[in-house]
Each structure stands twice: as structure tokens, then as C-alpha cells.
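Hi team, as promised in this morning's meeting, here are the two structures we talked about. I've kept the exact order from the run log so nobody has to guess. The first one is mostly here for context; it's the second one we should focus on when we meet again. Sequence first, then the predicted C-alpha cells.
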Amino acid sequence: MCTLSVVIPAYNEENGIAEIMNRVLSIRSALQNVGVDELELLVVDDGSKDKTAIIAREIARNDQNVVVITHEVNKGYGGALKTGFSKAKGELIGFLDADGTYPPEYFPLLCQQALNGADLVIGSRMAGEQSQMPATRRVGNLFFAGLLTMLGWQKITDSASGMRVVKREILSQIYPLPNGLNLTPVMSTRAVHEGIRMCEVPIPYSERIGRSKLSVVRDGLLFLQSMVWTVMAYNPVRVLGLMGLAGILLAFLVVFGLITARISGVTTIGPWGVAALFAGMVSGVTGVALFALGATSNYLVSLFYKKNIRQGLFGKPIFKKPLESRFGVLGSIILFSGLILSIVSLSLGISGWEIERLWLYLLGSAMMILTGVQLILYWSLMRVLEDLSQRELLIKKDLNG
């Protein structure tokens, strides 16, 4: 016996709520054809000021499988969905918006994928079916799908789709979820990093009934912030490491430019050269710090979860030993090289060399010393965290002989 509970969050949707409810109720026979025996419909009226709740209750009077839940105050899109999830009785829980943009007729296809093994099935508006999505929102959805693909190292075409089917048993893995419109991208991000079996089914997308409640700029920034912080809770080095590598790359480009200029016979640099040198040195030191912080934070995440959760900068190891395990040696080499360069430069200055010939070497040595010290400090911290993560295992080993 398998039941699908469909949750519809509704806020001031009196013009479209009846149509979407009737469309959901009309798919019973199609659901039975794919192995879903019962359909439950839950409408969560999220503090509406219009007749949304009245219209929904009229339909519920004629169908015992329709439940209307009312929030006295507006809790937000995510808050309404979570209320529906908590009241749903089905093994499969689906949801879609009340504005008629998503096609409930595709729920049988989504349920079929869930019954075939997927834990989370997303109706993708970006996977090829006909779509009436506004251009600005299409660009935004492409960006967020690409961002999650890059940060999660798994191909996703629609990270923010509002039509999904999820197995009740995996809700605890993808919680907590926010109360706002950012529930769907956070759900996708958590599912990717929790190793949830996901798949996408192409669906058409229609023009909504009534006025949209989504703000492209405000909610777009909220989506971005939510996704990045969610990734940071699982795999910090994916975010911080990529930022750090970008800074290190910029520093190398500046150094390459200076070496090329010196080989070409240029012995002085103008204002733009000074600006480039400043940017390169700042980005280099900052890049190393961000990369090392990301690697160290991964140890903290492992300590918290007591296991690795899809960790790594590129999704799989590049070196036999983790790069961060070499931070101590690498930092010592850079620190020692910086000290030698500074001693030589200062000695030449004391012996009469002009500062115009030495300032760049002194600046470079200072950067090397700072970078080396940072790497050694982060390596020391990671050693402590690694020892703490192994503490319970070592205690059990010693006690058991």
C-alpha cells in the first residue's frame, strides 16, 4: 500500500487554488497505474487575507482525502511546506505551487522514479520541456543550477524547482530547512551533500495565475547566500578553496608579468605596475589563507559528523596523501626561503646597495614569511583536529587490547 501526499502552500491564491486542487485530485487513476494506491491532498493556507481558505474548505467537504490547514499568521513558503510535511501520512510526499505554474499531471512520472529507487525526484523546468518562464528567472535558475553543479560536483539542471516528490524516510537527512522561498535550493544542496539518490524529470512550466511573490534580486541573493552557507556546512574547502585558488592564480600571474618585464629589460614599474603588484601580493597571501582555512574547516566538519561527507576540492583525491598534510613541510620551505631572501637583501642594503634595487625582494620575502607562517599554523591546528577525530577509536583500541 503506497500513498502520495501532495502539499500545496497557498498565500492569497483565491484565483487559482480551486483549479490546481481539482487538477491534483484528477490524477488518482494515473497514480494507480504506476503503483501509488492512494492520494492525499493537503492545502496549507499560510495566513491568507482573501478567500483562499474558504474555497479550499469547500472542496475538502466533498473529499475526505483533502485536508486544509490554516496558519493564523504567515510563516512563509518553506514554513507552510514543512507544516504540510509534518501532517502528511504518505510514504511519498509531493509538493507544488498553488499558482498553476507546475503540472500536477506529471506527478505519476515523478512517483514512478521514486518507486524505482530515487529518494528525491525533481520536476525540472530547465531540462527541455516547453516553458513560459520569464527570461530573468530563466537566467537566474541556470546560474543557481550551475552553481550547485560546481559546488556539489553533481549535474543538476533545476536546483530551485517547486515541484518534487520526496520519500518521507529521508526528510530527517535533509532537515533543517528554511521557512522562506529558499527552501527548494537548500533542499537540493543538502540532498547532494548527504548522498541522497536524486533524479530529475523534465516538466513544462506555465505562466502563473495572479501576481508573483518572488523578487528576482532579493530572493536571488537569498538563494545564493543559502546555498553557499549550506555547502560550507558540509564541504567548506569547496567554497573557500576555490576562492583561495583564484587568489593564488592572480598572484602567480603578477609574478609572471614581473619576471617577463625584467627579462625584457624593464627595471622600473609605473603606477599600474605598483597597483598590480599590490593586488597580486594581497590576493596571494589571502588566497593561501582561504585555502588553508577551507581545508582546516573540513576537519571540523568531519569531527562534527564523525564521517567524511563528499569532502574535497574536486570531489575526489588528486594526491595519494591529502595536500593539507604537506602544509607543515610546504610552509617550512616557504618560510625558510623567505628568511634567506630577507637576510640576503638586508645584507646587500647594509653594504651599500640602493633601496630601489632591493625593495621588491624585501617585499617578496615578507610575503613568503607570512605565507609560510600561515601554513605552519594551519597544519598544527589540523594535527590537533585529526588527533581529536581519532580519540574515540584509539581509546576503544587501547581498552580492548
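And here is the second protein, the one for discussion:
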Amino acid sequence: MTRPLRDVPARADLLLAALAEALEGTGPAVGPGIGPVADEVALVVRTSGSTGEPRGVLLSATALRASGAATADRLSGAGQWLLALPLQHVAGLQVLVRSVLAGTRPVVVPDGPFRAPAFVETTALLGSGPRYTSLVPTQLVRLLEDPDGTAALRTFDAVLVGGAATGAGVLDRARAAGVAVVTTYGMSETCGGCVYDGVPLAGVDVRIDDAGRVLLAGPVLAEGYADGVEEPFVHVDGRRWMRTSDLGTWTDGRLTVLGRADDVLVSGGTKVSPQAVEAALEPLGEAVVVGLPDDEWGQVVVAVVVPRPGAAPTLADARAAVTAHLGAAHAPRHLVVTDSLPLRGPGKIDRQAATELARRSIERNHT
């Protein structure tokens, strides 16, 4: 049996009502116009397309309910949410789903570029019960740089941060300021975040395969894709898992994500993790690390950095910071300073665009 698919309304209040009906099974599933879907599907989410063409991920009401219940169980129970993320992606949609399941009405940050004053104003509209919000790292950094934004963050029982890796320095700043920040790891295929602060939510299991890839299983897994392709879902020991594109370690019940497998650079025979180098560069500012072809090194490591206010980092600074943490073989051989990093999806770095930015900048400086 199939059910019709209702296109995603542009307004949060209309989408909230549509999701409530879809979760109850009294209305059609919600998602982009791809045609009818199976009865169990309540929501179709487009992937961000950061690793290829966007795909429609089929999420069942059962999976969404399991995710919502596990989130409330891990936090301070059901509460009211502040929506500060776009509704095209799973993190924003999950704010609405959790609100439906909690029986609360979310407060929505107005559309437009994310700015601290709007966040502060809408935070003031929340009630007195448990209060939650979900952010990407860039939003968290902007709020921490604003005294009123930081004060607003402190009023939340939990501030979920995901969509991209969050630097340890940013997390330390947030926690030192009294912000109850919680890192999340997941993707559209797992109903969003399913590992909080390295620990899986109830019912979620993690394992690492022989290639170092992170595998996830549990009731939060998607039914599959609208195009019918089963990959990257695999069956291991009689159980269905999602084989992610991320490398990780699993130690004492805690997951550490090392970065995407296809992001690893090989420079002079050394495997370089861009995420590790980016973490080492954090004192200099917001950074993305990419590789460019090089006759001598195979790939040359390039750091693209948005400096902290008032800072003017040099290549020597960048190399020293990375060498101290990872060794000289991992240090960048070029530094590109820019005003902002190219993004795609909910706060995710567009590495392809960053690579092109680095290439053009280096070519200009060498002509």
C-alpha cells in the first residue's frame, strides 16, 4: 500500500500541522514531490548533497517517534524548542517533530541571516519548562561572541550542536560560559542526531568495520531512499545497519568521529586527516583544510582560515600550531585567509567550493 505525499509547506506553523497528521497516520506523508510512498513513511527528507546528488530519505513514523522519545529521555524530558535551523534539512524538521511529540509549540527565529539579536528576542518568548534549541557550529560561535547571545544560550536546558564537527575550543568556551551544549552525530538516514556527546541514544548501536567506517543500527534508521537503492544499508550478523562515510573509533562505549573517509589526504606518503588539522588550527580561527594536486607531494595541504576578530595569522603560525599537535608532515604548506567559509546544507562546509577558493587564491598569489 502507498500513501500520497504532501509537499513541504514553507511556513513552520503549516508544516507543524502537516507533520502531526503524518505522525498519527491521519494525513499524507510530508516531503518534496516525488510521488506516493509506502504507508509507514511519514516524512521524506532531502540529503544535503554534500557527497553527490541529493536523495530522498524515507523516514517512518515509528523511527521518528523512537528518535523523539530517545532525545527526551537523554535530555530533561519533553520540552519547548526554539527553531533556528532551516526546514529543508533533518535537524530543522526534527525540532518540529519533537515539538509535535512533546505537545508543545516551538518558537521560530525569523527568516534571514542568523544574527544574535533575533535569537535573543525569540528566546525571550519561550516558556518556563525545559527549553531546547538545535544549532550548527557557526551559529554557536556567533552567539558566544555576543554577550547577550551567550546569556540567552545559558537559559536553555540543552543546546544541541551538530551538522558539522564542532571544535574542542568552541565547546570549552561554551561550557565555561555556562552553556549546556550537547554535541550530536547523525544524518538524515538516522532521523538526525542519534549519538549525543559520543554516547548512542537508547536503542542505537554503534560498531566500527574493518575499514574503520562507523556503522549505526537501531529503530531510528530510515526505511531507505526514494530511488529504491539500498546502499549504504547493509546486513551484518542478521541485522540491518547503515554504513556511514565517516571514520571513527569506539572505545569504552563512546564514539569518536575522525572525519569522512573520502576527505583523507595523502601528502608525501602521509595520511592527513583534515578534521584533525582543523582542530589544531582552531586557536587561529574557523578553518577548513583541503588538498590540492602537487607534483612533489602528490597532494599539498592547504588551510583556509577565517581569522578570529583582530587576528592576522600567518603560514608560520598555522604550521607551528599543527606541528605541535600532529607533527610537521600534517602542517599546511599554504594558508588562505578569507572572510567566510563556503557552506552547503545546515552549516556544513562545502569542501569542493573551499578547494576551488584555495586553488584560485594560490594561483593569484603565484602570478
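Starting points for discussion:
The radius of gyration is 21 Å.
The chain has two domains: 2-257, 264-365.
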